[in-house]
Specification:
Elements lengths: L1 E5 L11 H15 L3 E7 L4 H5 L2 E11 L2 E10 L7 E6 L1 H4 L10 H18 L6 E5 L6 H7 L10 E6 L7 E2 L19 E2 L2 E3 H8 L2 E4 L2 H6 L8 H6 L4 E3 L26 H15 L8 E8 L8 H11 L5 E8 L1 H13 L4 E5 L3 H10 L2 E4 L9 H7 L3 E5 L2 H6 L10 E3 L4 H15 L2 H12 L5 H17 L4
Parallel strand pairs: 1-2, 1-6, 2-5, 6-7, 7-11, 11-12, 13-14, 13-16, 14-15, 16-17, 17-18
Antiparallel strand pairs: 3-4, 4-5, 8-10, 9-10
This protein binds alpha-D-glucopyranose.
Keywords: Glycogen biosynthesis, Glycosyltransferase, Transferase
Pathway: Glycan biosynthesis; glycogen biosynthesis
InterPro entries: Glyco_trans_1, GS/SS, Starch_synth_cat_dom
Length: about 475
């Protein structure tokens, strides 16, 4: 079947978070399974865009109310990503380095959605499925159904995948005129709490709603930033499909970004070499267990708990642990984490920023990865960690609940229930004891390394869901 994925992010073209990893990998496995898969993202001014060759396959003008923006559709020439990548180039709106964070984000992502549909309809070929991702593409199912100009695409089946329901793309009805003309009797579909809510629109109008883990699907029924009732009402067309990870990119045996390759057969020596390199780089002591955090420093990820939890754990265990943090986000959290360096030299360090290569080395060289998230729709870091023989320490929520089982229950990680400094430190204590019991520690590592989180398996679940909505219009 012909599948379109429409998304704001796709690794390696543009990455802010896990959304990019999923949209950069799932299509490859769907292609391998014999489908024709096209990924469409905006053409930002990124390294990948500048270092690769593209051909222009379509150009026109996209209308946003009274504004006209010339746009082109650029196709990556080689298909080296394992699927067809298309960029919507609207220079006035996207020729900028960042994905999000501009005053005109609403105008940017609306134009992106409209231009994408203008191109799809201009091809004169009707796709089987359009899979939208998060609120940036939430209006697509609505426009397909009701906008006069997309009449011939009216029956295309759509799915919306929710990677993060906290962000919803709200805007006022004063911008209603941006949308292509449609019969106003449908205007209610746009509304949630007196504004246009892009995510809610997608959830109402798509043929199927997926979340990136089964537990997250349950959680959004009672915690979804105002959309709980809506999620409850669409339960019969919703499904939680746990994300996979790209086992080709994330493979400690082949990874070019780490210091020493290894597998489950020789992880002890392999990981030690990586740990030594990491500890040398960050002035840490490789004879002690290394606890790391990789990610965005926001409350949602429990980032605000890290400064105090690190300080407490280090003061209790100054002699026997290291903590290393890689991330960026909230300026206050960044500052607190940076200041801690002065108090715990030799046992603590932080790298403010985002660095894909360093992330790989951290997974390879750490003993534990901390994920104290308040909200975690799926979480990929715990899966990367396990694949690299690093034990995840997680708060039981969303996808973390679905992938990590406490070692006390013969599982692959360390779990706690509360998003609190106390719970994090309690888990660190248990992890230090486990580290000192090498036989059991290694068993937990091996269980993690042999867990199958590959996309091959997961990819089939998406295809089955698409087939159901194509054949029966329901799931
Ligand atoms: C978002 C979620 C994260 C999920 C990722 C990919 O970043 O916060 O939990 O793993 O999307 O679906």
């Amino acid at each position: 079947m012909e599948i379109f994925h429409i998304s704001a992010e796709c690794y390696p073209m543009a990455k802010v978070g896990g959304l990019a990893d999923v949209v950069g990998a799932l299509p490859k496995y769907q292609t391998n399974a014999g489908h024709l898969v096209r990924v469409v993202v905006p053409c930002y001014d990124t390294k990948f865009k500048n270092e690769n060759d593209f051909e222009c396959v379509h150009w026109a003008t996209v209308k946003l109310g009274n504004f006209d923006f010339p746009f082109s559709v650029l196709k990556e020439k080689t298909n080296k990503l394992g699927y067809e990548l298309y960029l919507i180039e609207i220079n006035d709106l996207f020729n900028r380095p960042n994905v999000y964070g501009y005053e005109d984000d609403i105008e940017r992502f609306l134009s992106f959605q409209i231009a994408t549909l203008d191109w799809i309809i201009a091809r004169n070929k009707i796709p089987d499925i359009i899979n939208c991702h998060d609120h940036h593409t939430g209006l697509v199912p609505f426009l397909l159904q009701v906008a006069y100009k997309y009449e011939t695409l009216k029956d295309v089946k759509t799915a919306i995948t929710i990677h993060n329901g906290l962000y919803q793309g709200w805007f006022g009805f004063d911008k209603l005129y941006y949308l292509p003309e449609f019969d106003l009797k449908h205007v209610g579909l746009l509304e949630w709490n007196n504004s246009i809510n892009s995510l809610a629109v997608g959830v109402k109008c798509a043929n199927a709603v997926t979340t990136v883990s089964p537990s997250y699907l349950n959680e959004i029924n009672y915690s979804a930033n105002g959309l709980e009732e809506l999620f409850r009402s669409v339960r019969n067309k919703s499904k939680g499909i746990l994300n996979g990870i790209d086992f080709e990119v994330w493979n400690p045996l082949k990874d070019q970004m780490i210091a020493e390759n290894y597998s489950i057969e020789n992880f002890e020596t392999g990981k030690l070499k990586n740990k030594e390199k990491l500890c040398e780089q960050f002035e840490l002591d490789s004879s002690k267990p290394l606890f790391s955090f990789i990610g965005r420093l926001f409350e949602e990820k429990g980032g605000d708990l890290l400064p105090q939890a690190s300080a407490l754990a280090l003061s209790e265990h100054f002699e026997d642990i290291n903590i290393l943090i890689l991330g960026s986000g909230n300026a206050e959290i960044e500052l607190q984490l940076t200041q801690l360096r002065n108090d715990y030299k030799g046992n603590y360090n932080v790298f403010i920023g985002y660095n894909e290569e360093l992330a790989h080395l951290i997974y390879a060289g750490s003993d534990y990865v901390l994920m104290p998230s308040r909200v975690e729709p799926c979480g990929l870091n715990q899966m990367y960690a396990m694949r690299y023989g690093t034990i995840p320490i997680v708060r039981r929520t969303g996808g973390l609940r679905d992938t990590v089982i406490d070692f006390g229950d013969d599982g692959n990680g360390v779990c706690h229930d509360q998003a609190s400094v106390g719970d994090i430190c309690y888990s660190i204590n248990r992890a230090v004891n486990l580290y000192n019991d090498k036989t059991n520690f290694n068993k937990v590592v091996q269980r993690g390394m042999s867990t199958d989180h590959s996309w091959e398996r997961v990819c089939q679940e998406y295809i089955e869901l698409y087939n159901l909505i194509i054949e029966k219009n329901e799931i």
